[in-house]
Design brief:
The complex is a heterodimer of chains A (411) and B (116). Chain A is of the alpha/beta class. Chain A has a four-stranded antiparallel sheet with strand order 2-1-4-3, with no helix packed on it. A four-stranded parallel sheet of chain A has the order 7-9-12-15, with no helix packed on it. A four-stranded parallel sheet of chain A has the order 8-11-14-17, with no helix packed on it. The termini of chain A are far apart. Chain B has 116 residues and is an alpha+beta fold. Chain B has two domains: 65 residues, no CATH class; 35 residues. Chain B contains three helices and five strands. In chain B, the strands form two sheets. Chain B has a three-stranded antiparallel sheet with strand order 2-1-3, with helices on one face. Chain B has a two-stranded antiparallel sheet with strand order 4-5. The longest helix of chain B has 33 residues. The N and C termini of chain B lie far apart (82 Å). Classes of the chains: A alpha/beta (411), B alpha+beta (116).
Chain lengths: 411, 116
């Protein structure tokens, strides 16, 4: 009997606490609340108690709970709506996500296939790609180092540039100063240029100086002598001068001793009556007379005789000896002296060929020669060479100890 | 001592005089002695010996005895005397000598005849 009393009491106690709660409605759903019999069907503070709920060893729902639908819709106990989202919509979203996942998987598979194809086409092995990746990493690291170094260099260059800019500024200042000095010098030079030689300048003593050009234009018959020319002293002309004597009654006369060391041009009728020296390329293009003892380094005769009658005792370019030689034709050939001869060839006994340094215009030139008691014969002649043979009285070629030849003609 | 040797060598080189020995088609030898501004090749061509074998040698290597000058020939880079031509030259000299002796005898005979 006792064994039934304790469970009974426990059941009574549980029933007390159990019936202390009941379901009630409120805005937005249902909830549990303490309940008494007086509360049944009452409305308190917006809540309507529906029915008590009795819990014991198993949940006991009163008959009124059977009025709620299977899903609990409208009962306030709809489990699908507890998170605010209906189960059906969650199911729809889940299906859509599943579809997207499937699509991504397909795309991923395609990409993997493409990558495998690309690796295969390029003949790349996984190891090679790994090595290349490692190399790239090394390069990237090196680039980082280089970039740092470059940055340092750039900073250094910037510092140098600043220094250089300072120097340039200084130079510009100096240049400006120099330009001012040059302007002043030009002004001074212009002043000197206009003042150094005026129209009637004369020099009473020795004169030294450098002049770009002096043009002396005298009237007819006026001598360029001690009285009227630029000096009454010894004159040294080192520049290029043009002395133009006007044609007419008299010639200009250079009567003082002169040294003409420049490339001078005397284009008029000039009489050089004094002892003068011409050491440079001086041109006398007119009919000039030199009665003094003149000294020339070289004289180039430009006129040919032509078809006319030669002037007596006059040099023309075709009456000048153009080449000559003196040599020993015995033993080993030895040249004593020569002019315009580049070589002499020994062809045999008494047989020699002279080669001219500056050739003749053609083979129509004249030559003459001697060789002791024997005689010379012309074996062959050309513009470039002259072949001669030394022969004895019997006409036999023979060597000779002294053979001389001269040649005259056009070159 | 080394400097002295260098100077002596330089002087000997500078003083060396090069001539060109050309072998002609007739077997004889022509020798070009330069004087001034000489171009060996140009001169050889002007002499008509273009393409012929030649050798540039020091002047001291040229024989000084010209008795058989027309018998000289260029062989193995040397000037030697052609034996055949040498004999011909000797024969000509002998012939000339003989001719001169005959002339002298004839002159003596003529003189004797005149005296007679």
């Amino acid at each position: 009997m006792k064994k039934y009393i304790l469970p009974f009491l426990i059941t009574i106690l549980l029933g007390y606490f159990t019936i202390s709660y009941g379901l009630f409605t409120e805005e937005g759903g249902t909830s549990l609340a303490t309940w008494t019999e007086e509360d049944a069907g009452q409305t308190t503070a917006g809540r309507q108690f529906l029915t008590p709920v009795i819990f014991s060893s198993s949940v006991y729902l009163p008959s009124t709970a059977n009025q709620i639908s299977g899903a609990g819709t409208g009962s306030g106990l709809d489990a699908d709506m507890l998170d605010g989202t209906h189960l059906s919509s969650i199911n729809t979203s889940t299906a859509s996500l599943q579809t997207q996942i499937d699509t991504l998987e397909v795309s991923t598979g395609t990409l993997q296939t493409d990558l495998a194809t690309e690796v295969s086409d390029r003949g790349l092995a996984d190891t090679a790609i790994g090595v290349a990746t490692g190399t790239l990493r090394t390069d990237i690291t090196a680039l980082g180092v280089s970039t740092g170094s470059l940055l340092t260099t750039i900073q250094s260059i910037q510092a140098d540039t600043t220094t250089l800019q300072g120097l340039i500024d200084t130079l510009e200042t100096d240049t400006s100063t120099l330009a001012g000095l040059i302007d002043q010098l030009e002004l001074d030079t212009a002043t000197l240029s206009t003042s150094k030689l005026n129209a009637n300048a004369s020099f009473g003593g020795d004169v030294s100086g450098t002049y770009d050009d002096i043009s002396v234009n005298k009237a007819k018959g006026v001598d360029l002598d001690t009285a009227s020319w630029v000096t009454d002293q010894y004159l040294i002309m080192k520049g290029t001068y043009v002395v133009t004597a006007a044609a007419g009654a008299g010639d200009a006369i250079l009567s003082a001793d002169q040294d003409f060391t420049g490339a001078n041009t005397f284009s008029g009728g000039i009489n050089v009556t004094a002892i003068s020296t011409f050491t440079a390329n001086t041109s006398f293009s007119g009919t000039n007379t030199h009665t003094g003892l003149e000294t020339f380094d070289r004289i180039a005769i430009s006129s040919a005789m032509g078809e006319g009658t030669p002037v007596a005792n006059t040099l023309y370019k075709d009456n000048i000896i153009k080449g000559w030689i003196s040599f020993n034709g015995t033993g080993v050939i030895a040249i004593n002296a020569s002019f315009n001869v580049s070589s002499i060839s020994d062809n045999g006994t008494g047989d020699y060929t002279i080669s001219w340094d500056v050739d003749f215009a053609n083979a129509n030139y004249a030559e003459a020669g001697m060789c002791g008691d024997d005689y010379l014969s012309q074996a062959a002649i050309a513009a470039e060479t002259l072949r001669i043979m030394a022969k004895n009285d019997a006409g036999t070629a023979t060597d000779n100890g002294l053979i001389t030849v001269i040649a005259v003609g056009s070159q | 001592m080394r400097i002295l040797l260098i100077i002596l060598f330089s002087v000997s080189v500078l003083s060396a005089e090069t001539v060109r020995v050309i072998s002609r088609t007739d077997g004889g030898v022509s020798i070009i002695y330069p004087v001034k501004n000489c171009d060996f090749n140009k001169t050889q061509k002007e002499l008509g010996f273009e393409g012929r074998p030649y050798k540039d040698v020091d002047k001291s290597l040229i024989p000084t005895d010209r008795k058989y000058r027309n018998a000289w020939k260029f062989e193995k880079d040397k000037i030697i005397i052609d034996a055949v031509k040498q004999t011909e030259i000797d024969n000509k000299v002998a012939e000339k000598t003989l001719y001169e002796r005959i002339v002298a005898i004839e002159q003596k005979v003529n003189t004797l005849e005149a005296v007679k």
